[in-house]
């Protein structure tokens, strides 16, 4: 039987590249976006995915209703996030709450919702999408980085608790990736070069650079990897 996978935030960027790759791998892929069903449905059609759903992960009732829309899955990729660029002394309560809810709280609640069926069937794969900012300071991303570090801590704790059920829980940490989120930087020659100068491999990553690690973590070849963090950053954190 085909495996089912839900990839949050797969209407563009890294999530869309992951969704495209898992369709090619033969999975029933569920594309997820925040609110525009039209956008999610058009990506579903473009890449030949199985289903499209929306749920705004800043709203608890929408987080809680996601599993009813998708049913249980074999693999869960928690990729959606929000990011506000603000120095530490300008972080507002509003942006604090948004980043904590979308990036951290929804991660825990969705793992709580989807892991029981994985444990029951004795096989499951959960991958969270973190960031090189877990390792590297950025003057305008302290709160974003804090949520990504907190997710990594959850990953390690939950991985240990579900390991004996055949369920693995891992994180990936991309560096600077050319997605719509970063378009204002990589489409500006000067800004792009400044970032590329700080990357040992000398280039932005492409969304496809994040695919191999997630395919491995979700495969039987990755069955013995759990509680880990795989970094794909062209050496940026070094
Ligand atoms: N790009 C990078 O350089 C980079 C580096 C390190 C880590 N990352 C991480 O990689 C992941 C993907 O990044 P990306 O650059 O591909 O992101 P992106 O281009 O900004 O796309 C974000 C995705 O998340 C969804 N999303 C946003 N807010 C949401 C909400 N409130 N509820 C539900 N879904 C929401 C969006 O859905 P809609 O389009 O439907 O709104 C979209 O599909 C994120 O976790 C990010 O933190 C990215």
Task: Describe the structure concisely.
The chain is an alpha/beta fold.
Short key terms for the protein model shown above:
44% helix, globular, 7 strands, Rossmann fold, single chain, 238 residues, binds NADP nicotinamide-adenine-dinucleotide phosphate, 8 helices, alpha/beta, 7-stranded parallel β-sheet
Tally of helical runs: 8
Helix content: 40-55%
- Ligand identities: NADP nicotinamide-adenine-dinucleotide phosphate
Q: What is the CA–CA distance across the termini?
A: 42 Å
Overall 3D geometry?
A: globular
Instruction: Profile the largest sheet.
Output: 7 strands, parallel
The second-level CATH architecture is: 3-Layer(aba) Sandwich
- The oligomeric status of these chains comes to single chain
Class from secondary-structure proportions: alpha/beta
Average of the residue pLDDT scores: 98
CATH topology: Rossmann fold
Number of domains: 1
Enumerate the strands of the largest sheet in spatial order, edge to edge or round the barrel: 3-2-1-4-5-6-7
The share of residues in extended strands comes to 15-25%
């Amino acid at each position: 039987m085909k495996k089912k996978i839900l990839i949050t935030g797969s209407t563009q960027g890294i999530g869309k590249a992951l969704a495209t790759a898992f369709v090619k791998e033969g999975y029933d892929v569920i594309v997820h976006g925040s609110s525009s069903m039209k956008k999610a449905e058009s990506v579903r059609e473009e890449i030949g995915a199985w289903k499209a759903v929306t749920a705004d992960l800043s709203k608890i009732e929408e987080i809680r209703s996601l599993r009813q829309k998708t049913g249980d899955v074999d693999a869960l990729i928690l990729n959606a996030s929000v990011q506000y660029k603000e120095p530490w002394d300008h972080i507002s309560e509003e942006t604090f709450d948004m980043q904590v809810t979308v990036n951290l709280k929804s991660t825990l609640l969705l793992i709580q919702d989807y892991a029981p069926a994985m444990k029951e069937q004795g096989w499951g794969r959960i991958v969270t999408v973190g960031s090189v900012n877990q390792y590297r300071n950025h003057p305008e991303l302290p709160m974003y980085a804090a949520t990504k570090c907190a997710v990594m801590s959850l990953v390690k704790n939950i991985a240990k608790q579900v390991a004996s059920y055949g369920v693995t829980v891992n994180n990936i940490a991309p560096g600077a990736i050319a997605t719509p989120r970063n378009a204002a930087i990589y489409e500006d020659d000067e800004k792009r070069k400044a970032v590329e100068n700080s990357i040992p491999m000398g280039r932005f990553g492409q969304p496809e650079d994040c695919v191999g690690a997630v395919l491995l973590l979700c495969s039987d070849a990755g069955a013995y990897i759990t509680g880990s963090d795989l970094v794909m950053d062209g050496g940026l954190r070094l």
